[in-house]
Amino acid sequence: MLTRLSGARIVDPAHGTQQDVRDLYVRDGRMVDRPRDGERIDRTWDAAGTIVMAGAIDLHTHIGGGKVNIARGLLPELGRQHSLAATDVCGACTIGPAPSTLATGYRYAAMGYTACFEPAMLPVNARQAHMEMGDTPIVDKGAYAMLGNDDFLLRLLADGANRAEIRDYVAWTLHATQAIGIKVVNAGGISAFKFNQRSLDVDEAHVHYGITPRTILRELARAVHDLGVPHPLHVHSSNLGVPGNVDSTLATIDAAEGLPIHLTHLQFHSYGTEGDRKFSSAAARIAEKVNASPNVSVDVGQILFGQTVTASGDSMLQCRNSRHGRPPKWVVMDIECDAGCGVVPFRYRDRDFVNALQWAIGLELFLMIRDPWRVFLTTDHPNGGPFTSYPHLIKLLMDRSFRNGVLASINPEAAAMSALGSLEREYSLHEIAIMTRAAPARILGLEDQGHLGPGAAANIVVYEPHPDPEVMFATPRWVFKDGELVAERGEVKTVICGAIHTVKPDFDRGIERKLKGWFEQHHTQSLSSFKIDDEEVCECGRAPRLAVHACRARTA
Amino acid sequence: MPLRGATCGFCGLLCDDLEVEVDGAALRVVRGACARSEAALAALGAVVDPVPRIAGKPASLDAALAATVEVLRAARRPVIGGLDVDVAGMRSVLALARRIGAVVDHAGGSIKYRNLHVLQEFGGITTTFAEARNRADLVLLVGDGWWRRFPRFVERILAPNGTERRIVTLSALDPATRLTLPKDADVLALDAPLTGMPAVCSMLNALVEERPVKPARLAGVTPQALQRCAEWLRAAQYGVIVWSAADLDWPHAELTVQAIARLVRTLNGTTRFAALPLAGSDADLTANAVQTWQSGVPLPASYANRSVDFDPNRYALRNVLARGEADALLWVSSLSGAAPPPVPGMPCVVLTRADVELDTAANVQIPVATPGIDAAGHLLRGDKVITLRLPRLREGGPPAVSTVLDLLLARLG
Ligand SMILES: [Zn+2]
Ligand SMILES: [Zn+2]
Ligand SMILES: [Zn+2]
């Protein structure tokens, strides 16, 4: 089956900057260069006058796993208010601040997203995370396994384990949980909270294990790098949301010692303590450091005004920030000698000084970090706001006068303290395509995603140009996933199941002997119950395909 | 005789260390047994070739499905109850509910709601089995039925290999359970009757918050004992409060759960404390979790009018039946062996565990596989974080819930 998409202007940054009008060809779900000699074209889509990009990729969105489900259960009154009626192809569901998995898949696809990555999969909760992602239709999925607060690793580090052992454990975790990357959340802090430590700075010792976050960060970044896992260690830094956390964020960058790291929801970690309220933007300092550190990539975690719910692995800081929560009900969990979580609803208000400045700080980061290949478009869904606000966020980046209009309407004290009004940069379509397509594919090691060259998955989004980028990006004319039309003008047309993306680096399975003993002594399930094999993950995740991406080990 | 590794799905602990001797259909737990697994395996092991029935008479699966389709096609306000099923089963239940516009509720819905209500009003600070097992230096036990409902809790979590920690019991322990505690365990027994739980819990709150209260004798507990308990709670480094909502069976029991949640939150101001509500039996957490992630709202829910809605009173199965708002009942049960509530005059289709014999003839009865026995299946454990795969133990046996419901869906078109 050969399909042609004709006459569109192609924006495909993975293959250069030229945006020429040309035809695209799809054979059996994959992009091809041109038809074979004499090959019949089965169908042509007339896309004259449109702008075409590859399917978008969200590399940090909380779409699966227990804490999102706790958020749903905590706020049923908000879910009820946002009911989505069934259609001929979609099931009835709701889209509250923590949307149902069904609504998540439908809306992402309708917006032109074809792959989403759950950034905080607790290893002990991996099965449920894969199940929730499996019930998130249409888009491809993958997840980062959380390490760095699990007693096994902290014990290894405290005992001065050698790097090979740490590397083997990291690789084993990737295999056992079917993950594509490793995330560390408040390194050591979630564990320290279980010992009643209420904060933990980068160079402060864990009260029980005696090791510092710096050590954990360095060793995990090293292990991920040495294993050749494409995605760098994904780091949720210390002191989430704490005024003055700029220092620990800069220290976190240094802790990587030049190895690749990805700093997530950077907005929540770019705060100073200047001004009467002892809360200020430190975006300029952070951006300067990021610009000067080619080993660092970031996503912003932009906040947008309105009701949302924050769901984080960071039990320590969520407990601390819970007093700001609205409505005032929240959940904190210590989890299975492995991790933790905290779920706190938030209502970000544009008239509130702190919220307004948070909003400005996020935009400052977007505009001050120069390289669009190293800064990604996220709201840390749902923590800063729902993913459905991405078109609005794109407009804020592309349209300076619109941005300044919003700036003029927020808390004036916050607006006055922000440099945002003086930032002239406007993102181009090309740059938006980099940060939402080409760059996330590259940083995750997804060879066949995020571009439209031959061999790529035929994930194609056809936009109608519009003077208002929010309109253009909200409802593409057509969205094709693996060559199939899945959405048209915001309406889902076909519901399919997406693949699961993983990595499986080589490692020495001897580590299992040690792990088996650990499980028998401390855990309440056996090692074999814990592990998820390929067949099981595809069943749980309803995946037609497990896409295993290559790792190039950097050690002998 | 072949020995097989097994996971027990008959309470929320999901113990995965069982060894079961499989002799034809007969099953015997030789390691990791509990009263619940022994009873269930004995019952299931005694059943040979269960068959579907129509109006009490044996029938083929094909005929039973055809009869079910007829019932569901004629129904305008169907309800689906039971729901002690695995994840795949629940996925199919929800697909069917969306297809026929049904109200769905778990058999233990009102029990589960005692905890859920407090979550939705207040939130909570909770912990999991391995945290409690490895970290707790004090465990406060509320209620008088957890040892029957979660038979291996002491062995696997409270006192594995004789681990010592302070234990406070609000209700008198039964002597057999008392014997399973380490010999010189530091136990403070308050021995209040169940009816005294609300008063004792709120008094403990007041004492821990250091409100100016004079502890009086409460529900038979001396003021000294209450004071001592509050001191122990405050002195704990990592305290855990354990209860099973099923024990708290009185009007407005959610107030007691709320008092516990408040106690935990207060204690967290200075030390670490967490709640560990024991649940997960009869797949109540599994059913609720799948419903919640797929639709965004928990059980009980209605899928009428092509949309989904949640309302803990309006859609509670017993309320729907009492108000006469249903015209057909589909009962889907694979673990508990529970029969549906009587619904005289209403068509009733029943999927049950293979050993269940109904008192009254349902229109259709279809035996289904029990997860972890005749089919593999996934269940969510009682501490809400871990989902385990229960491997299949023996060949043959009836089809899985998801298999039956998917056939039904295909026929409904
Ligand atoms: Zn995070
Ligand atoms: Zn996040
Ligand atoms: Zn058992």
Keywords for this entry:
heterodimer; A: 556 residues; alpha/beta; TIM Barrel; nine-stranded mixed beta sheet; 20 helices; 34% helix; globular; B: 413 residues; Rossmann fold; Dimethylsulfoxide Reductase, domain 2; 2 domains; five-stranded parallel beta sheet; binds zinc ion
Q: Do you know the CATH topology of the largest domain in chain B?
A: Rossmann fold
- pLDDT < 50 runs, ≥5 residues of chain A: none
Question: For the record, what CATH class of the largest domain in chain B applies?
Answer: Alpha Beta
Q: pLDDT under 50 segments of chain B (min length 5)? A: none
Could you explain the architecture of this structure?
The complex is a heterodimer of chains A (556) and B (413). In chain A, the strands form 5 sheets. In chain A, strands 6, 9, 10, 11, 12, 13, 16, 20, 25 and 26 form a 10-stranded parallel beta sheet that branches. Chain A is globular. The mean pLDDT of chain A is 97. Chain A has 556 residues and is of the alpha/beta class. Chain A is built from 20 helices and 26 strands. The two termini of chain A are 45 Å apart. Chain A has a single domain, classed as TIM Barrel (Alpha-Beta Barrel), CATH 3.20.20. Chain B folds into 2 domains: 191 residues, Rossmann fold (3-Layer(aba) Sandwich), CATH 3.40.50.740; 142 residues, 3-Layer(aba) Sandwich (Dimethylsulfoxide Reductase, domain 2), CATH 3.40.228.10. Chain B is built from 14 helices and 20 strands. In chain B, strands 5-4-18-17-16-6-7-14-15 form a 9-stranded mixed beta sheet. In chain B, strands 11-10-9-12-13 form a 5-stranded parallel beta sheet, sandwiched between helices. Chain B has a 3-stranded antiparallel beta sheet with strand order 1-2-3. Chain B starts with a strand and ends with a helix. In chain B, 58% of the residues are buried. The chains are: A alpha/beta (556), B alpha/beta (413). Strand 18 of chain A pairs parallel with strand 8 of chain B. The complex binds zinc ion (3 copies). The site of one zinc ion has 6 residues of chain A, from loops.
